[in-house]
């Protein structure tokens, strides 16, 4: 406890809290269509493929919008960029409340909800910017815990939609977005670690094998988290015939595991290494997804399997970002931002795969299997790449090297990883 107080005093705790709240509410808005998918699907009589595509649109749009928001933050500051983003989210939610009357409008709304998904890089950088290097990982973990906004969406959106109509939820969400906006204005301060990155510097890690390896693994861990969290309300409702509210509550159980275990994943990785942790994570994800596809007749077994799968995905997110600062010690924020963008794009794969599998084969099994195969492929890639990683910038298993600054890849874009 004393150590945590020391951590808080080493930076600016109100800004960290504001960053967490900002990311939490944005994440809730980002997955709002997924949480309300059973209501929207019923209103417009959507096919399974249409459901999957509708759920994937906000995920894909959010991933693509992360880079423009990051550039904006460099010019006007992270606090101001966050306020601009939240203002645009309120306008987008107002559009959803007043103007949606068709499936095409829902898709357009999905693009607008993507604005909320752009908050990742700005929130983490804003929250950790006041803290010294030895505490940045913990600060980023606290700010990143805002992905618990998924829990808010799946827990509160369905009962509100049941009581007031699903379009009214957009209006209510717009009202509640004022809370993080006020907190940001009153309590947050722009961090002093101002560093302008060129476009080339921002995408430098994608010119290296390591950058692509990290991004593809994040496609599984974070892409799987956001994709499943968005699709599960539809899956539980359609597969097991539970009510829309119950589908949200079951999704909440799984999503809560993923959010809570993220910090634990980072903690474990500090001790046994991020490579070892990710090896276990990818194996568990692959096995549990296949078992979820097989156990499609048992609600209890499926729910428990999803909780285990989400725990692994959350731990994987924490483990991967334990490795990022080891590989890019002087460009952690830049590398993490780009990896996060690519990883988020992967979240659009799973809802589409599930929807197409159901529509053309009559079962969700092949959607589960497709993502499980991807997880196995990433596991194989990890085991190959780790041979060089542990010879150059990490200890065996992916632990930090004892000698500070010992990583040879201190700058993004160095040719050694190519």
Protein model, in words:
This protein is mostly helical and 418 residues long. It folds into two domains: 11-188, MFS general substrate transporter like domains (Growth Hormone, Chain: A, Up-down Bundle), CATH 1.20.1250.20; 197-418, Growth Hormone, Chain: A, CATH 1.20.1250.20. The chain has helices spanning 2-9, 13-30, 32-35, 37-44, 48-76, 78-99, 103-117, 120-128, 133-144, 149-164, 166-176, 178-187, 199-202, 209-240, 244-272, 274-294, 299-327, 332-346, 349-361, 365-392. The relative contact order is 0.15.
Give a quick rundown of the structure.
By secondary structure, this protein is mainly alpha-helical.
Descriptive keywords:
mainly alpha; Growth Hormone, Chain: A; single chain; 418 residues
Task: Set out the fold topology.
Blueprint lengths: L1 H8 L3 H18 L1 H4 L1 H8 L3 H29 L1 H22 L3 H15 L2 H9 L4 H12 L4 H16 L1 H11 L1 H10 L11 H4 L6 H32 L3 H29 L1 H21 L4 H29 L4 H15 L2 H13 L3 H28 L26
Secondary structure: helix percent: over 70%
Sketch the topology as an H/E string, one letter per element: HHHHHHHHHHHHHHHHHHHH
Low-confidence stretches: 404-418
Reported by name, the CATH topology of the largest domain is Growth Hormone, Chain: A
Look at the structure and give the mean pLDDT: 90
Overall strand count: 0
Multimerization status: single chain
Secondary structure category: mainly alpha
The gyration radius over C-alpha positions equals 20 Å
Q: Which second-level CATH architecture of the largest domain applies?
A: Up-down Bundle
Spell out the CATH superfamily of the largest domain: MFS general substrate transporter like domains
CATH class of the largest domain: Mainly Alpha
Main sheet characteristics: none
Overall domain count:
2
How many helical elements? 20
What is the end-to-end distance?
43 Å
* Beta-strand proportion: under 5%
């Amino acid at each position: 406890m004393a150590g945590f107080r020391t951590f808080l005093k080493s930076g600016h705790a109100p800004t960290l809290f504001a960053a967490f709240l900002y990311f939490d509410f944005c994440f809730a808005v980002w997955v709002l269509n997924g949480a309300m998918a059973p209501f929207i699907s019923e209103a417009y009589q959507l096919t399974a493929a249409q459901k999957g595509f509708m759920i994937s649109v906000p995920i894909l749009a959010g991933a693509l919008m992360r880079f423009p928001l990051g550039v904006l933050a460099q010019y006007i500051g992270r606090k101001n960029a966050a306020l601009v983003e939240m203002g645009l989210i309120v306008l987008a939610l107002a559009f959803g409340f007043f103007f949606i009357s068709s499936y095409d409008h829902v898709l357009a709304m999905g693009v607008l909800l993507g604005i909320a998904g752009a908050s990742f890089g700005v929130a983490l950088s804003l929250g950790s910017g006041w803290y010294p290097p030895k505490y940045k990982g913990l600060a980023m973990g606290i700010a990143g815990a805002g992905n618990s906004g998924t829990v808010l969406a799946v827990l509160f959106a369905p009962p509100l939609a049941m009581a007031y109509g699903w379009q009214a939820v957009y209006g209510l969400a717009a009202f509640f977005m004022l809370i993080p906006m006020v907190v940001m204005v009153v309590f947050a301060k722009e961090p002093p670690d101002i560093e302008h990155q060129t476009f080339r510097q921002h995408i430098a890690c994608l010119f290296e094998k390591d950058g692509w390896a990290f991004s593809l693994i994040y496609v599984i861990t974070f892409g799987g988290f956001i994709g499943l969290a968005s699709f599960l309300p539809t899956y539980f409702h359609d597969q097991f015939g539970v009510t829309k509210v119950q589908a949200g509550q079951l999704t909440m159980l799984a999503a809560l595991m993923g959010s809570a275990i993220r910090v634990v994943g980072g903690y474990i990785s500090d001790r046994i290494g991020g490579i070892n942790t990710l090896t276990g994570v990818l194996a568990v994800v692959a096995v549990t997804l296949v078992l979820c596809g097989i156990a499609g007749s048992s609600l209890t077994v499926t729910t428990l399997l999803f909780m285990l799968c989400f725990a692994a995905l959350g731990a994987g997110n924490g483990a991967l970002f334990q490795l990022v600062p080891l590989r890019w010690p002087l460009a952690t924020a830049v590398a993490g931002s780009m990896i996060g963008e690519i990883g988020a794009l992967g979240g659009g794969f799973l809802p589409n795969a599930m929807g197409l599998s159901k529509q053309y084969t009559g079962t969700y099994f092949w959607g589960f299997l497709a993502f499980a195969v991807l997880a196995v492929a990433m596991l194989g890639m990890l085991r190959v790449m780790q041979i060089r990683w542990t010879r150059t910038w990490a200890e065996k298993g992916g632990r930090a090297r004892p000698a500070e600054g010992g990583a040879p890849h201190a700058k993004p874009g160095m040719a050694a990883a190519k």
